Amino acid sequence: MELRHLRYFVTVAEELHFTRAAKKLRIAQQALSAQIRNLEVELGFDLFVRSPKGAELTPAGQALLNGARETLATAAASVEAARRVAARDTNLLRLGFCSYAMKFGVGDAINAFRSAWPDVRLALNDLPGPEQLQRLERGELDVAVCSQLLPDSPFFSGLETLTLATEKLVGLIPPEGVWTSPVPNRLQEYLDLPFVGLDRNGFSEYWRFLDRICEMRGRRIQPSLQVNSKHSLMMLVAGGMGVSVMPAHVAESVPGTLRVVPISDLTEEIPIVAAFQRHSQNSMLPAFLQVLKDCLELQTASPSAQRVELAP
Question: Which domain holds residue 133?
Answer without folding.
Answer: 98-301
